Amino acid sequence: MAPDPHLDSPPAGDWTVDELMIAVLASCFEDGDQACNGMASFLPVAALQLAKLTHAPDLVWLAGAVGLEPRPGPIPASTLEAPLWRDALMYVEQYGDFWTLALNGRWLQKFCVGAAQLDRFGNANNSVIGGDFHAPKVRLPGTAGLADMGSLGKQLYYWNPNHNPRSLVETVDFVSCAGYLGGGDERERLGLTGGPELVVTNLCVMDFEPDSKHMRLRSVHPDVTLEQVLDATGYEPVLPPGGVPVTPKPTAEQVRLIREVIDPHGMRHREFRRR
Fold this sequence. Notes:
Glutaconate Coenzyme A-transferase
């Protein structure tokens, strides 16, 4: 039997952190999953494409809440406009039919979501920072459906390409999307299922400790130290016993697909703040 380059590919010798983040996000999706990307989501779009091209060809993807099973070329300049889903098998009316699907507990289980602030219990803020809600220091774009996704039993996968103490905070200034609220069983006691599953940043991967629901450090990326992660985080994450593992590098085949097929124009780099 001929080797499968997707399964047998060795770790890449030449990779960048955006490619590592895409590979980690891609590993969250399996055959039969139903997933959706949100606004300005270049890394998740690349991850969904990567999963479909490698280990999860039967992943069901609703692109931008409009195009079911898109067949895009290279990632376009917008992840919420027609070029992404122009050749989809079916169009879904975003302000009507999409919500019928989202509100049905059997469909669209997994969502990739971003947030300006994310706290230790996975509560997200995309609304306001500082001051009164009606007179904040900063007014953010708003929830764009994020509040609904946090309340409808969905599995939420956060990505953050600029890990810093202002984006990963002790407590969000405003809860735009319910995570595990005050931690423990509070979400469950309020009758909310689903919730945050994973947080992938440019420094590390975090999940949630099962009992406290406090964010837990799952792995640190290669060439990043534990001290760098702790200094860049506005709270102290739970540390795994026995030391923190290193995030696996993307494979050579994953990197090739990202660079040559999925995103040859480098749209994914738009998510990273210029320094």
